[in-house]
């Protein structure tokens, strides 16, 4: 079983790479391929959000078209009155 105590005689640890906050935020750390992939992912997310929004609007419109007029009138009345 390994010891869980620290060895005070151990050599100091020096990381082989610098993890400076400036370096992590720098665009120099990102390759062009990674940047292209990130932009493609952002575009895909925006496209999916647009599709979901259009689908939601379509479903609401379809539900209103198929709902009985009395039910729509009741929902409009409750909405105007501030009821849930």
Overview of the molecule:
The chain is mainly alpha-helical. It has a domain of 50 residues. It contains three helices and no strands. The relative contact order is 0.04. The model has no long low-confidence stretch (mean pLDDT 85).
Radius of gyration: 29 Å
Q: Percent range for helical residues?
A: 55-70%
Query: Given the structure, what is the number of helices?
Result: 3
Please indicate the percent range of residues in DSSP E strands (runs of 2 or more).
under 5%
What is the string of SSEs from the N terminus onward?
A: HHH
What would the principal axes of the Cα set say about the shape?
A: elongated
Q: Span between N and C termini?
A: 64 Å
Main sheet: strands, sense, barrel:
none
List keywords for this structure.
84 residues, mainly alpha, 63% helix
Q: What is the gist of this entry?
A:
The chain is an all-alpha fold and 84 residues long.
Indicate the topology.
Elements lengths: L20 H5 L6 H35 L2 H13 L3
